Amino acid sequence: MKKTVSLLKALSDQNRLRVVAALLSGDELCACQIKELLKVTGATVSRHLALLIQTGIVDSRKDGRWVYYRLQKKNSDFSTLILWLEKEFQNSALVQTDRIRLHEIDSSDKMEMCRKQRGCGISTGCFN
């Protein structure tokens, strides 16, 4: 029961749901891309990602100087929830807008985006 409560609390925030929706529509994102999408501070993105990682719905991997975040789609504990969220996100105007914005973000230069954000400054983010 404790795991379920933690998961539902993690998903009770609109920005964290937007992160999940963004990760559902793509493979993986770095923290600076998530920051750019949400238009929030690096510290806020770090807190959101930390909560999603603690619940086990999001995982990360490091590739050189970059840290990438992805959904744990293969985790059978979340498969029904993921399917339900995908269906719900189809009817969301905000998620549709985010997907368009995410396409723009994804086609831009990540290094330049991080420079504009001043080296990211995100503790769980792009550069370590």
Structure description:
The protein is mainly alpha-helical and 128 residues long. The protein has one domain (2-116): Winged helix-like DNA-binding domain superfamily/Winged helix DNA-binding domain (Arc Repressor Mutant, subunit A). It is 59% helix and 11% strand. It contains 7 helices and 3 strands; from the N terminus they run H-H-E-H-H-E-E-H-H-H. A 3-stranded antiparallel beta sheet has the order 1-3-2. The protein starts with a helix and ends in a 12-residue tail after the last helix. Mean pLDDT is 84; it is low at 120-125.
One letter per element, helices H and strands E, the order comes to HHEHHEEHHH
State the CATH architecture: Orthogonal Bundle
CATH homologous superfamily - what is it?
Winged helix-like DNA-binding domain superfamily/Winged helix DNA-binding domain
Indicate the CATH class: Mainly Alpha
* Class from secondary-structure proportions: mainly alpha
Rg, Å, rounded: 14 Å
Widest β-sheet, arrangement of strands: 1-3-2
The third-level CATH topology is Arc Repressor Mutant, subunit A
List the helices and strands and how they pair.
Layout: H1 2-10, H2 14-25, E1 29-30, H3 31-38, H4 42-55, E2 58-63, E3 66-71, H5 79-90, H6 93-106, H7 110-116
Helix pairs in contact: 1-4, 2-6, 3-4
Question: What tags apply to this protein structure?
Answer:
128 residues; mainly alpha; Arc Repressor Mutant, subunit A; three-stranded antiparallel beta sheet; 7 helices; 59% helix; 11% strand; globular
